[in-house]
Write a structure and sequence with these properties.
The chain is an alpha+beta fold. The protein is built from 3 helices and 6 strands; from the N terminus they run βαββααβββ. The strands form 2 sheets. A 4-stranded antiparallel sheet has the order 2-3-1-4. Strands 5-6 form a two-stranded antiparallel sheet. A hairpin with a 2-residue loop joins strand 5 and strand 6. The longest helix is centred in the N-terminal third of the chain and has 17 residues. The chain is globular. The protein starts with a strand and ends in a 5-residue tail after the last strand.
Length: 101
């Protein structure tokens, strides 16, 4: 079962996040085979980053946590809080994976 990792940005890291964005995107691109999905969490204005969300194709908590820990954002201290939990695929990309039984 995959892991969902929610990372909240620490206070006052907007400039740092913006500066590291190219390295962060390179990291995601280099690991596409490990990602079910990933993206920024944004405020209601749709512009201000609040953190990140990762859906990781691993059933190993240590691997999920290590993946995020190696992200340039995490290494530089962009994230203040990180929470990893198992994620059951219910609906993804307009497809249902829901079990009715």
């Amino acid at each position: 079962m995959p892991f969902m990792v929610v990372a909240d940005d620490a206070a006052g890291v907007g400039e740092l996040r913006a500066r590291l964005r190219p390295a962060h995107l390179d990291y995601l691109d280099a690991n596409l085979d490990r990602l079910i999905g990933a993206g920024a969490r944004l405020s209601d204005d749709g512009l201000t980053p609040l953190g990140s969300l990762y859906l990781l194709a691993t059933d190993n908590r240590a691997e999920a946590e290590a993946f995020v820990a190696n992200d340039p954002y995490a290494k530089a201290g962009v994230f203040g809080r990180i929470e990893a939990t198992r994620w059951r695929r219910g609906v993804l990309d307009h497809k249902s994976f829901l079990s009715r039984g």
